[in-house]
Specification:
The chain is mainly α. It has one helix and no strands. 20% of the residues lie in helices and 0% in strands. 10% of the residues are buried.
Length: 92
């Protein structure tokens, strides 16, 4: 989804097929707050991971960070996997 564009109510992720317009992807999502929402005017849905029609929804900026193609993150993941395999004797 392009940065700065609000996803449609029925829009899904091209990669995984999950709903995008969900509480968990909203910048107002705040576990522990009333309805788990920092926006006091919003009527929070009970299912935070399912599409909803909240007009207060704003995509959380942290979801716009691409990680799969960043070499530094890939190296860190490979190192963590190698460390785990060394520690527990796993590996392929």
């Amino acid at each position: 989804m392009p940065r700065g564009r609000k996803p449609g109510f029925n829009e899904t992720c091209d990669s995984c097929g999950r709903d995008l317009h969900v509480c968990l992807n909203c910048r107002f999502f705040l576990p522990g707050a009333r309805g788990d929402c920092a926006e006091s005017e919003a009527e929070a849905p009970t299912e935070k991971d399912r599409r909803n029609q909240c007009d207060w929804f704003e995509a959380d900026p942290r979801f716009f960070v691409a990680t799969a193609g960043k070499p530094g993150l890939r190296r860190a993941a490979d190192k963590a996997r190698d460390d785990f395999d060394r520690l527990f004797g796993g590996g392929s």
